[in-house]
Design brief:
By secondary structure, the protein is an all-alpha fold. The chain contains 5 helices and no strands.
Length: about 150
């Protein structure tokens, strides 16, 4: 059991830089896509910086961590946090069912947190996912405006 804790401690410092290597190019591309689609910089900063940090702090370091410490089990804690995360996104959008699409990525972020316990890594991955979403959304918008 002790070797697992040591492996987490050793792996954790490597996770954040590696996830940043993945997330930074996506964030840059997402920023370009958002700029091309006419999105303001304030909204862009919210989607790629502020929201990932705050949401991961609440969902992972908050709810998921509390559930893990209450001995709910890692998978249960992840599932509860992911469903709550999806519900919050649905409420924020004004469509509860829209939050269902957020649950799968939230499960991946929850898995990463359960594995490495790094909110920084989760926030970087979250920013990368948001940037990827911006890229896809802007390319769909561009392709439909051409038609």
């Amino acid at each position: 059991m002790r070797s697992t804790a040591n492996a987490r401690t050793v792996a954790c410092p490597m996770v954040a830089p590696a996830s940043c290597l993945f997330a930074v190019p996506l964030v840059m591309l997402g920023g370009l896509a958002a700029t091309w689609s006419g999105m303001g910089y304030g909204r862009l900063v919210m989607l790629l910086v502020v929201s990932p940090i705050l949401e991961e702090a609440v969902a992972r370091a908050g709810l998921q961590e509390v559930l893990i410490r209450l001995r709910a089990g890692s998978w249960t804690a992840n599932l509860v946090a992911a469903v709550a995360f999806g519900f919050a996104h649905g409420v924020a959008r004004g469509e509860i069912l829209a939050g269902l699409g957020v649950i799968a990525p939230a499960l991946l972020l929850g898995y990463a947190y359960g594995r490495w316990r790094s909110v920084r890594a989760c926030a970087a991955l979250h920013a990368g996912m948001n940037a990827l979403w911006l890229l896809v959304a802007s390319s769909i918008q561009a392709s439909t405006s051409v038609l």
